[in-house]
Amino acid sequence: MLKKIIGAVIAVFFTWALLDFIGHGLIFARLYAAMPGVWRPQAEMKIAFIYSGVLITAASFVSIYAFLIRSRNLVTGLIFGVLFGLSMGSSLAFGGYAVHPIQAELAIGWFVLAIIENAIAGLIVGAMIRSSK
Fold this sequence. Notes:
There is one protein chain. The protein has one domain (2-128). It is built from five helices and no strands. The two termini are 14 Å apart. It has helices spanning 2-27, 29-33, 47-68, 74-99, 104-128. The protein is mainly alpha-helical. Helices cover 78% and strands 0% of the residues. The longest helix has 26 residues, at 2-27.
């Protein structure tokens, strides 16, 4: 079971990193560029902190699924991922919009991206960590 958990953490981590690059690096790039005073310059970004946070979140996501969900399968994984995404996305998007001078379009994008990323992560854990028969 430990090998499956470690494999799922790695798979979720790299999936989220790729989807974050697509979402934040490509899709939202023009929105970020329109608000240069809100973000650190690229050269000052703390990339190690970003990826540490992604790794910790991936490990938490997989662990919650592996240790607390009893009926583990693809459908359960998807439902878990969507619910986790709603939780994370609403906190990030609504909280971010409430306290930072960002456009509503960006907050909505963060919300949708969180749901998509976590739904895919749910499918990954659902496929990799199944209930014993």
